[in-house]
Amino acid sequence: MRPSPRIRAGAIALALAVALPAAQAAAPLARTQAPGFYRMMLGDFEVTALSDGTVNLEMGKILTRTTPAQTQRALARSFLKDPVETSVNAYLINTGSKLVLIDAGAGKLFGPTLGGLVASLKAAGYQPEQVDEIYVTHMHADHVGGLVAEGKLVFPNAVVRADQHDAGFWLSPATLEKASKDEKAFVEGAQASVNPYAAAGKFKPFEGTTELLPGIAGVATHGHTPGHAIYVVESKGQKLVLWGDLMHVAAVQFANPAVTIQFDSDSKAAAVQRKKAFADAAKGGYWVAAAHLPFPGIGHLRSEGSGYAFIPANYAVPR
Fold it and tell me: Which string of DSSP letters, residue by residue, matches 209-266?
């Protein structure tokens, strides 16, 4: 006589209960992300966004040409609260013959939540020794701090390039001497990060709009710092403009490009450069990327009313 389906089901359940170990205590929360990288093709060039980490910034306190209440309302529309967890991104351009890094992250100069650039670079399949050139948008700590670790060059085979006006300001002993207490850390960080490359003959500033490699040009956008520069990358009719710190808070500044930040050395000039860059990107329809857009920070801009909307890149596998 065969057992009924109900009896068979009960027997199976009993066997499983005996065979499987009892449930253990809940696993601890990991609270980490994997090293961050994202790839896309730009013509014949491969572009890899690299995450250095994130840092909490109190936008209600540091944004200018607006009010804290306006800032909070703008953040709320994007389901954000203050402080805002803000990405710090860098970008690796593989031209096929050169490996070019745009900005170098914060290293240990901006707190424990940043400094992940090298881990992201290695996760993406590269070693620091393979980087040929590093183009710095400006010499704030979160863009140059990763150049040096424990007094040694992190990228020993790379030439570092930046706009001469930024070099002239941040690397000058006179700037350090005149700096206020709050400013000294920024100046000291820039000098500690870039001067070792200069001493090794590996720092080569440029002046104004300059072709640095075939397909990559530096463009002067002074304002956020005395020598802030953006980088234009072009291959096979495709274009990507790397904005550096032309913008900081997507939820606020795309809708209102006039909003500035305390870190600007010349907020009026910075706002002019931002408005110009936004208008050109919306008109041209090319790719843009920025250091503080939510990682990977790559997308397009579209005009929307009196401001703009950012459309992030659709996730895709490069082919």
Answer: SEEEETTEEEEE-TTSSTT-EEEEEEETTEEEEE-TTS-S-HHHHTT-TT-EETT-SS
Number of helices (H) and strands (E), helices first, in the chain? 10, 17
pLDDT tens sequence across 4-34: 555 455 544 444 444 555 556 688 898 888 8
Q: Minimal CA–CA distance to 105: which of 141, 55, 159?
A: 141
CA separation for the pair 88, 116 (Å, rounded): 10
Please state, in angstroms and rounded to a whole number, the distance separating the CA atoms of residues 255 and 307.
Answer: 4
Which CATH superfamily includes the segment(s) 35-312? Ribonuclease Z/Hydroxyacylglutathione hydrolase-like (3.60.15.10)
> Which residue matches tokens 């208008």?
279
Report angle CA 111, 66, 274 to the nearest 5 degrees. 75
User: pLDDT for 208-233, tens place per residue?
Assistant: 999 999 999 999 999 999 999 999 99
Could you state, in order of their start, the residue ranges of all structural domains in the chain? Answer: 35-312
Mean pLDDT for the chain overall: 93
Q: How far apart are CA 120 and CA 112, in angstroms?
A: 16
Place of tokens 């389901």: 79
Report the pLDDT averaged over residues 247-254.
Answer: 97
Cis peptide before 83, with omega less than 30 degrees from 0? yes
Strand-pair partners of 301: 310
pLDDT for res 319 = 82
